[in-house]
From TrEMBL:
<dbReference type="InterPro" id="IPR036291">
    <property type="entry name" value="NAD(P)-bd_dom_sf"/>
</dbReference>
<keyword id="KW-0560">Oxidoreductase</keyword>
<dbReference type="GO" id="GO:0004316">
    <property type="term" value="F:3-oxoacyl-[acyl-carrier-protein] reductase (NADPH) activity"/>
</dbReference>
<comment type="similarity">
    <text>Belongs to the short-chain dehydrogenases/reductases (SDR) family.</text>
</comment>
<dbReference type="InterPro" id="IPR002347">
    <property type="entry name" value="SDR_fam"/>
</dbReference>
<dbReference type="Pfam" id="PF00106">
    <property type="entry name" value="adh_short"/>
</dbReference>
<dbReference type="InterPro" id="IPR020904">
    <property type="entry name" value="Sc_DH/Rdtase_CS"/>
</dbReference>
<protein>
    <submittedName>
        <fullName>3-oxoacyl-[acyl-carrier-protein] reductase FabG</fullName>
        <ecNumber>1.1.1.100</ecNumber>
    </submittedName>
</protein>
Length: 250
């Protein structure tokens, strides 16, 4: 019988890629995303559930809609503030924190409560090195990611005596399609190589980075595979796939 994986934030981008790769590798995958099924890739083997995690009432229905408890949970859902942090209303701040930190925490607790302790559960929480580089405009997003990191640590501590592992995959700048397309347009406009434009972009945006290319989605998937494959030894683990952008002493 195929194992069951839940991937949040699976409507597009990295989440869609992780869900598709898991399905291709034989997992029974449930993808959770804000977009309706008609706006998702429609990947074979991925059962899409539409859910807006910024709405408080959504959380109450997710566990019932899932049916069986998953063997693997990948928290990838993310919300980006619509405006700079100092311009956000309290409601907008709450939405960002709810999606980026509070729902992954609360949903994990609910799913674990419904899972027999004889069944191993692997939880991989996708986080961002942005928490180390907060500025005037990115403070709300960075703070939500810092909150996610603290809550993930508390989940790992709570799972010390459970048949569960809670690990963090910390990512640097990703090669998402929109970012790649933007860099390609800049390279074409300036008549230079795309790789050189990417190097310049990364050096300016991430001074501590020691790689000169964006991190591809497949590297992220292999990292998720690695963490899930470690079993209980992965509990509390932090795996950095950030090219050193979080700083040399971290």
């Amino acid at each position: 019988m195929a194992q069951h994986a839940l991937v949040t934030g699976s409507s597009h981008g990295l989440g869609a890629h992780l869900a598709a790769r898991l399905a291709a590798d034989g997992w029974k995958v449930t993808g959770l995303g804000r977009r309706p099924a008609s706006e998702t890739p429609g990947t074979p083997g991925v059962d899409h559930l539409q859910a807006d995690l910024s709405r408080p009432e959504t959380l109450e229905r997710i566990t019932d809609r899932l049916g069986e408890a998953p063997d693997l949970i990948v928290h990838n859902a993310v919300s980006y503030p619509p405006r700079p942090a100092h311009e956000l209303s309290l409601a907008e701040l709450e939405d960002v924190f709810r999606v980026n930190a509070l729902v992954p925490y609360r949903l994990t607790l609910d799913l674990l409560a419904a899972t027999p302790d004889t069944r191993f559960t692997s939880i991989v929480v996708i986080n961002s090195e942005s928490m180390f580089h907060a500025d005037r405009d990115s403070g709300a997003y960075a703070a939500s990611k810092a909150a996610l990191r603290v809550l993930t640590g508390s989940l790992a501590d709570a799972c010390r005596s459970r048949n569960t592992a809670v690990a963090t995959l910390l990512l640097g700048p990703l090669a998402d399609p929109d970012k790649v397309a933007q860099l390609q347009r800049v390279a074409a406009r300036r008549g230079v190589d795309e790789a050189e434009i990417t190097r310049v972009f990364l050096r300016k945006s991430n001074p501590d980075l020691v790689i000169e290319e964006l991190i591809d989605f497949d590297a992220c998937y292999r990292s998720v595979q690695y963490l899930a494959g470690l079993g209980r030894a992965a509990n509390g683990m932090l795996c950095r796939l950030d090219g050193g952008s979080a700083g040399s002493l971290i």
